[in-house]
Amino acid sequence: MKGDGIRVARVEREVQSLISRFLAGAYKGELPGLVTVSMVKMPADLKTARVFISFFNAAEKEEKEGVQLLQRRAPEIQSYINDELGLRYCPRLTFMRDETSERIIEIDRILQDLDTQKSGASKPASSTETSDE
Q: To which H or E segment does residue 94 belong?
């Protein structure tokens, strides 16, 4: 139907905001590092939601444990969303580690390496030869 995409986007933003607020209050000390809900993706029926979580200043193992903790606590978070939004169906949450920032850092590192190689190759070689007269 026309407008479904707009509704889905609006609900995604609202779910993202609610989860962010919930995590800031309920799990403040339990999750590693700084936690951000970077994105929520939902299908048109709004029955499921993939929640992408970014962790800053946390080791990869801690990030995985953080996602596992959130997945175990998903029913509690879903209940909160249901109470706040009052949707016909409360979306079933699946938490996933957002690796976008890691990819950006890796791409940036590669670009810097290429730039360093390029600037090193473009410098003229110093003349060490002496002329024989």
A: strand 92-97
Q: Given pLDDT bands bounded at 50, 70 and 90, which one contains residue 44?
A: very high
Nearest to 81 by CA among 4, 6, 2, 17: 17
- Tens-place pLDDT, residues 98-109: 877 667 777 878
**Backbone dihedral angles phi then psi of residue 33, each to the nearest 5 degrees:** 60, -155
Please give the Cα distance from 32 to 12 (Å, whole number): 24
Q: Please provide the DSSP assignment of 15-67 as one string.
A: HHHHHHHHHHHHSTTTSSSEEEEEEEE--TT-SEEEEEEEEES--HHHHHHHH
Residue 22: CB atoms within 10 Å: 17
* Lookup: tokens for 91: 């979306």
What global pTM score does this model have?
0.73
